Amino acid sequence: MSRFARSFLALLALGASAPALAGPLADGDKMAIMADVDRGADTLAKNALQIWNYAEIGFQETKSSALLQQQLKAAGFTVEAGIAGMPTAFVARFRTGDGPVIGLLAEYDALPGLPQAAEPVRKPIEGIAGHGCGHNLFGAASVAAAIATKDWMVAHKIKGELRLYGTPAEEGGSGKVFIVRAGLTKDVSAMIHWHAADSNSASQNTALANISGKFRFHGTAAHAAAAPERGRSALDGVEAMDAMVNMMREHVPQETRIHYVITDGGKAPNVVPDTAEVYYYVRHPNQQVVADIMDRVKKAAEGAAMGTGTTVEFNQVGGTFDLLPNDTLGHVMYDNLKQVTLPSYSAQEQAFITQIQSSFPKGTRMGDGSVEAYSSGGLTPASTDVGDVSYTTPTVGMVAATWAPGTPPHSWQAVAASGTSVGTKGAVVAAKAMALTAAQLFQSPDTLAEAKAELDRRRGKDFVYRSLLGDKGPALEYRNGK
């Protein structure tokens, strides 16, 4: 198993046993659903690769969102766009009558700074972003799963409502938080999602809560040589803040992660910069600890401003909960993932994988591509806005092998594989497992009831959802230096 698979799937089982609630789908239904996904595999791949080429960053995924909406409308879904104050967000509905509401999540934003050709060597291309987390595959496969599930519902006269939520800006913009906060998921019986990865698993693990935002310092411009005493450097404020936060790392819980980039450090060395900005992420498994640490980071910013004769303002961009596992749904997803035949690779695809792996550091652990054994409760050392969904709706996820084993996310290797048939073949696996799971849950009221009961147990009887973003609206321009 690769290092990323070990951390992402964290095989630290809590001893959860599989509930004998959801009866399996009939073999004929399974075969029909998977055959439906196979018939649409070329369209899935076309959509995924088109979104890969668009490589649109958070809240700017205009073409990517429109492409997925068009596919769903053509398949008979009613689509509402621009939901929760986000122009590129949407919800697609297919309703046949009273019954369960099963939701699927779709993502489609790219990461800035990762333009890369779909080749197994480092080859930057023109552009500002790349799909280093495979969200092009995520969105396309979720749509394919929704369409196959809808076809099965029609064929079997299944009552209920199937929804697909198009959720922008997962990478830092917290798009799903605004959808949850707007109450658009409150009647969903179960939510299903997946993610691109270097392995196959339906293990249900936790993630890191996250608060992010930009600290903007304001000073006084001056000639850096002729009149430096007249200047007050905003960049000094940024650097003083960063120095204090870096010293603070010794005095925070060890699970904490703090990252930053200086997004504006001035324009010319001979001009004392009157504005400068640094963009921070703070993460920890506990939401309250994240909030407390971010308060300390803010105090460091205030101290830096005082010490450098500048002022500072904070603009929060994101805020997400940790991820709440649901073993009731997790075992259903795991059983269905095991029903899916994993892809075989052509000689050309295998050569691509092998060459990608040759770029990894010596000692990188690489899995064999099989479905990992089920586990629950391990810590995924990353953050996702699915966390807020998981605290308000019974939620289940999986990962599919869309990259060469050993590939870390947010890397050029992940971008490259996400733009090839290696990636799209893995996305087909995810689409099948999600569609099988959705279909099974439509016929499993006892399982849905137990999943809701498990959610209530895990989050506590006194739980009240309060977003880490408060009442702040979407930071629609956060990728544009604002």
TrEMBL record:
Q: Does the keyword Membrane apply?
A: no
The residues forming the signal peptide are 1-22
Q: Which InterPro entries match?
A: Amidohydrolase, Aminobenzoyl-glu_utiliz_pB, Bact_exopeptidase_dim_dom, Peptidase_M20, Peptidase_M20/M20A_hydrolases, Peptidase_M20_dimer
Per its record, what are the GO molecular function terms? dipeptidase activity; para-aminobenzoyl-glutamate hydrolase activity
Gene Ontology process terms (BP): folic acid catabolic process
Record keywords: Transferase included? Answer: no
| Keywords, in A-Z order | Hydrolase, Signal
Q: Which Pfam families match?
A: M20_dimer, Peptidase_M20
Residue span, Peptidase M20 dimerisation domain? 211-303
Q: List cellular component terms (GO).
A: cytoplasm
NCBIfam families, alphabetized = amidohydrolases
What is this protein's record name?
Amidohydrolase
Organism placement in taxonomy: Bacteria, Pseudomonadati, Pseudomonadota, Alphaproteobacteria, Sphingomonadales
